[in-house]
Write a structure and sequence with these properties.
Strand order of the largest sheet: 1-2-4-3-5-12-6-11
Distance between the termini: 27 Å
Largest sheet: 8 strands, mixed
Number of helices: 11
Low-confidence stretches: none
Number of domains: 2
Order of helices and strands: HHEEEHEHEEEHEEHEHEHEHHH
Strand content: 15-25%
Number of strands: 12
Radius of gyration: 23 Å
Helix content: 40-55%
CATH superfamily of the largest domain: Zn peptidases
CATH architecture of the largest domain: 3-Layer(aba) Sandwich
Mean pLDDT: 96
Length: about 400
């Protein structure tokens, strides 16, 4: 693309986002933040976002791919396809402590701006926004992949996540974001232990204690943690632990995450964790059942897409770090997408205190501020231009495809 054409497209992108900023703040950002919904329960968010898009003339498919809270809208009928992923689920009890209200805001803004630029360019190309529910543990994107949401030849899948600056850079204040976010793989599952009730004082010998099984499993894994690698993680909570102390507990349920930098590593660690869990069932005499959720693949970064995003953020006055050497020891179902299509999952830093991190109530408060909103929209300008350049620049698309096929360890 000629530089003059590129500047013209940037102007369209910037003006579109600036024009929509107030409505995005009022009708998307704040509404989602004030109505947090957990995985697959995002009815308000689904209806709010789809109406917002319909009010702007887009034909929106609701409840797509068998998921009631997914949606899809698209412009263009030929040429390459870019998919902008939007997340909007929240966490139990602590709301938008992962800032998905900002993700929805930035993704919608990027879609609107890229669509406007593509339309005014007159070029071929398709830009799609895909509503992806249940990132927080529900594996929405994994289910969307299985249902065919990415069956088309996708030139790029794009989104970005808010984060505290100190979580991706030691030089806080130097960088306003990160392009090449990399995350580790995660197996997610629940375990059920079933035993037998009895009077805990009168005849405890007649009981089979499912709470003992849960505690033993937790402790066994606690010992295992001494022998795992520094970049591996195991987490568990007891979701159901019994009723009253004078009744032997006959049912418990635990929720588990088992993480490692790669899927192969996560598989090996999972086998060790299961040995700990199964030993607890054997020791207590409880029956054990696994409830398996979608596995999150490690998130890989695409060099060509990341470099282009960094360039575009420079154009709006932002200094974005290209990559980190280490993976972030967290996981996302966008990792699954990055294994089937060239993908961009960037980071934009929102202001927080130095003791705040993701999944903290103070981060939820930070995600509701006007300053965070404006930062999300700045990121949207870079994502929109990244989408436009993928659609219109054959060389960039070829590089992104090459990086996807050959540079998964970049």
């Amino acid at each position: 693309m000629a530089n003059i054409a590129l500047e013209s497209l940037r102007s369209i992108v910037n003006s579109t986002i600036e024009k929509e900023s107030s409505d995005l703040w009022t009708h998307i950002n704040q509404q989602l933040h004030q109505h947090p919904e957990t995985a697959y329960e995002e009815v308000f968010a689904h209806d709010t976002i789809t109406k917002f898009l319909e009010d702007r003339g887009f034909t929106v498919k609701r409840s797509t791919y068998g998921l009631p809270t997914s949606f899809e809208a698209e412009i263009g009928s030929s040429g390459r396809l870019v998919v902008v992923c939007a997340e909007y689920d929240a966490l139990p009890q602590i709301g938008h402590a992962c800032g998905h209200n900002l993700i929805a805001t930035s993704s919608i803004a990027a879609f609107l701006a890229a669509a406007s630029a593509l339309k005014q360019s007159g070029a071929a190309g398709r830009i799609r926004i895909l509503g992806t529910p249940a990132e927080e543990g529900g594996g929405g994107k994994a289910k969307l992949i299985d249902a065919g949401a990415f069956k088309d030849d996708v030139a790029a899948a794009i989104m970005a996540h808010p984060m505290c600056a100190h979580q991706f850079s030691d030089d806080v204040g130097k960088y306003s974001g990160l392009a090449a976010l990399k995350m580790i793989a995660s197996h997610k599952f629940r375990t059920e232990f079933r035993g037998k009730t009895a009077h805990a004082a009168g005849q405890p010998w007649d009981g089979v204690n499912a709470l003992d099984a849960a505690v033993a499993a937790y402790n066994n894994v606690g010992l295992l943690r001494q022998q795992i690698k520094p970049d591996e993680r195991i987490h568990a909570v007891i979701e159901v632990g019994g009723t009253v102390p004078n009744v032997i507990t006959d049912y418990t349920r635990m929720n588990w995450n088992v993480r490692s930098p790669t899927l192969a590593g996560a598989d090996k660690l999972l086998a060790r964790v299961k040995a700990c869990i199964e030993a607890a069932a054997t020791a207590t005499g409880c029956e054990l059942n696994y409830i398996v959720a979608p596995t999150y693949a490690n998130l890989t970064a695409n060099k060509a897409l990341c470099e282009t995003y960094v360039d575009e953020m420079k154009a709006v006055g932002e200094n974005v770090l290209l990559q980190q050497q280490e993976q972030v020891t967290a996981s996302t179902d966008m990792g699954n997408v990055s294994h089937i299509a060239p993908s961009f999952h960037g980071v934009f830093a929102i202001p927080t205190d130095s003791d705040v991190s993701l999944h903290n109530p103070k981060f939820a408060a930070a995600a509701s501020t006007k300053e965070a909103h404006d930062i999300a929209l700045n990121c949207a300008k870079g994502m929109a231009m990244l989408a436009v350049r993928v659609l219109l620049d054959e060389e960039l698309t070829s590089k992104a495809k090459y990086d996807f096929e050959h540079n998964h360890d970049w």
